[in-house]
Amino acid sequence: SEDSKHRVYTGHQLRAFTGIKFENKEASLSQCDQVQDNDFIRYNETPMRWRDVKLSHPYSKWNFAGVASDQVASLRVNSRQGVTAFHYILLLDRSGSMSGANWDNLMIATKALIKGRIESGADDRITIIPFDDHVVHTDIFTNQKMNDINTNNIRFTGGGTEFGQPLQVVINVLSQLRNNNITPHLRTIILFISDGGAGYPKQQLDVLAPQVGQDIAEFWTVTIGGQNNMHKQINDRMQGTLKLAIDPTTLKAVFAEIIADRNCR
């Protein structure tokens, strides 16, 4: 019955929960009221959201109603030392078809990705390459700290669509990073986001594809709208993961999914 359930109140600590740890494998000392449903923790060495842990045995029999919503702290369980840092490279399509809701939601998603990685505690770097049918080099944010990025400074331009130039910038950035002794050398996660089609960038992909699994840790293609055969070809060549955002309002959720597993390491 509800009365016989173990009742959890503000101040109850997670260290009483066998198997629940922070990302650095230390036993958790957080209080129940400090953990939010969407926060990731490790439960018996498996990354899980807190809401799913509460539904699992034996905690499904516990009563968490004693934790008042206005007492929930803003602590992020993932904000721990030891989360692996990456260099994120975002290729953001700003062609004419991306105007309006597409661009607005892409900026919301980009801001959320940056915020999520900052809150993870990882010492990431980021490069942002906006593109249409060409790349304006003064609009590129190259190898910057996440905290230094203001998404309001990412301009929308309109225009056509061309994939070779932004991918060439990726090649150049990776080359510069290999010879950079100032900032730490991090493995790269590339996000290629577009709603349009263009020619197949064979020359650039022939250079980048062999780097997958080495300097390039992951490649993600996010297609806004319906299926796009050219995006699939690019993604296949890069041994990447293809995500569809049929509705641009789902971009934030797609980006959250991309960083979720990273935030649990």
TrEMBL record:
- Residue ranges annotated as transmembrane are none
Name the SUPFAM superfamilies on file.
vWA-like (SSF53300)
Task: Determine the domain of life of the protein's source.
Answer: Eukaryota
Location of the VWFA domain: 87-235
**CDD domains for this protein:** vWFA
For this entry, the protein name equals VWFA domain-containing protein
Q: Look up and give the organism this protein is from.
A: Didymodactylos carnosus
